Amino acid sequence: MFIRCPHPKVTLKNDPTKIKKMLEDGWLCQPKINGRRIQIHRRGDVLTCYTRQGSIHTKELSEGLKNDILGLLDDGDVIEGEFIFQTQKVYLFDYIVRRGESLAGLAWIERFSNFDNRRFEHIEKLPTYTLENFSYILALMADVDTDFIEGVVFKSKHKDFTDDSIVRCRKK
User: Fold this and answer.
1) 14-73: per-residue pLDDT in tens?
2) What is the model's pTM?
3) Quick one: which of 35, 39, 74, 75 is 20 to 30 A from 102 by CA?
4) What is the DSSP string of 42-106?
């Protein structure tokens, strides 16, 4: 069953001063991938994929991607990411349910820490940036040639599973 997850309602202007302030205030940052949101549920060996709105995902997953997801997830897990259909890759950014137990009461960084560091051909855990990465974040935001990265998303280290725990910042 689809789980409504936090979705950013606030947009930050692509301004170095504002970006730096968010990082100084302790927010974490990840690249915002320009793909299709996908929520993946594992029940036994069955994967069910949903869109951001909660309908069944209609884009077909390759066998390689399905096998990678089955290798990553335990029974009862629910995760979210961005799916790039052309490359058959999922960029992971949130762990919603772990082995049947909801993680909604935890701050994002605690949920995200449930992903391990195993590597898969078709799955990538998005990197997390802090103030130490400020110059890199500015370069990422200035790079207009990276089509699949549309900006960054700031995530609160302290707030739980709410829309105001996420702030979007687009390149344009």
Assistant:
1) 999 999 999 999 999 999 999 999 999 999 999 999 999 999 998 889 999 999 999 999
2) 0.92
3) 35
4) EETTEEEEE-TTSSBP-SPPPHHHHHHHHHHPPTT-EEEEEEETTTTEEEEEEEEEETTEE-TTS
